[in-house]
């Protein structure tokens, strides 16, 4: 059925308002090799889907292992899948990436602190599992701290006089129908059970 909900893990990026009217393809890096697909009109969505053109790769150690057995190992060839979905509503334009899709987009067009701010607004502050810090010492240092169980921010020993919070991972607040929330810089990542008819509402919700 078309309205069946699927569980997806999404990476969301909010387009800066001043770029809301540019061509969808402009949100991608000029070096991105993609195929573009229009969305089915029956969904009444304004947007476009970009799929990275398939590229077959083999691990650098393939030749070594083939020499060991004296025959080719065709199963070692693999393809990575990447996609970028752009959805525009009356309120905002948002990009969702799948696979390695985040490496296809040009980050200059996105709100730089959308990920960290949205994560802090949607997760329980006593449910943190990891934090990324940028410490302003004599030499700037990036740190990643993980807790063995869900914890409050105090467990991570943050010094507000010198530490800048860069990214967080935790569980959602009550009433937030998302799972496994992470946010840092411009990217907000989360799990969700969703059907196509709910995508536009999701864009509006996250852009508040």
From TrEMBL:
It holds the Pfam family DUF6119. InterPro entries: CHP04141. It comes from the Bacteria. This is TIGR04141 family sporadically distributed protein.
């Amino acid at each position: 059925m078309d309205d069946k909900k699927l569980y997806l893990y999404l990476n969301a990026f909010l387009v800066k308002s001043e770029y809301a009217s540019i061509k969808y393809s402009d949100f991608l890096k000029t070096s991105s090799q993609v195929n573009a697909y229009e969305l089915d009109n029956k969904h009444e969505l304004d947007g476009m889907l970009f799929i990275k053109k398939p590229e077959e790769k083999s691990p650098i150690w393939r030749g070594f292992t083939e020499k060991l057995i004296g025959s080719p190992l065709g199963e070692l060839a693999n393809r990575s899948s990447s996609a970028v979905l752009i959805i525009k509503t009356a309120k905002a334009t948002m990009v969702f990436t799948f696979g390695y899709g985040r490496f296809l987009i040009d980050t200059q067009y996105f709100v730089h602190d959308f990920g960290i701010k949205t994560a802090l607004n949607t997760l329980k502050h006593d449910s943190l599992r990891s934090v990324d810090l940028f410490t302003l010492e004599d030499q700037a240092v990036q740190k990643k701290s993980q807790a063995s169980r869900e914890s409050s921010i105090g467990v991570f020993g943050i010094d507000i006089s010198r530490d800048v919070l860069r990214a967080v991972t935790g569980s959602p607040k009550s009433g937030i129908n998302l799972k496994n929330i992470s946010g840092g810089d411009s990217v907000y990542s989360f799990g969700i059970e969703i059907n196509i008819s709910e995508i536009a509402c999701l864009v509006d919700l996250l852009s508040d």
